[in-house]
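Support request, please re-run this one:
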Amino acid sequence: MKVPGTLDQEVVRLTIHTALVSESDAVSARELTRVAAALDKQVIRDFGPLWGILATVDPVLNFEDIPVAFWPIII
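Re-run finished. Output below.
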């Protein structure tokens, strides 16, 4: 990706991975998955281009299962 104001240098952006996980029994796995998909779509479509960030939002069913490199979002 070319960044305005640079001398034709390529800028490599790493993807930020976030894990949406619920610690509440009130949120079902189905609801968690649906919300994560909606947030992921919004991040890719709206947030990412505006802020110049590549990011994902993935549902994770248990806190212990969050991958090491992921940023947790806990409900």
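The first helix runs from residue 29 to 51. The chain has one domain: 15-74.
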